[in-house]
Write a structure and sequence with these properties.
single chain; alpha+beta; 6-stranded antiparallel beta sheet; 1 helix; globular
Amino acid sequence: MRAELLIDERYILSGDTFVEIVIWRLPRPARGSMHRFKYRLALVEHGVCVLRYDNEAGKGGHRHVGDVEEPYDFSSPDALLADFWAEVDARRR
């Protein structure tokens, strides 16, 4: 099995604010992860990434809020999307 791109989307929320979501299904877990998904979800405001969920190789799941990085407990792509969008909505209120 080859890596399969599941989602590659960009949403413009306002003139200079957008969300980018990319999720892949991998043939085997990425280094540092227990699941077969590779992801990056980002909220960019005025050219600055203010929120990002990702699982770069060796680090496992985590999220960045501004300059702060903390662990993120991935359970499924649906939960990941729900958690990310809930945080985007809360930030934009």
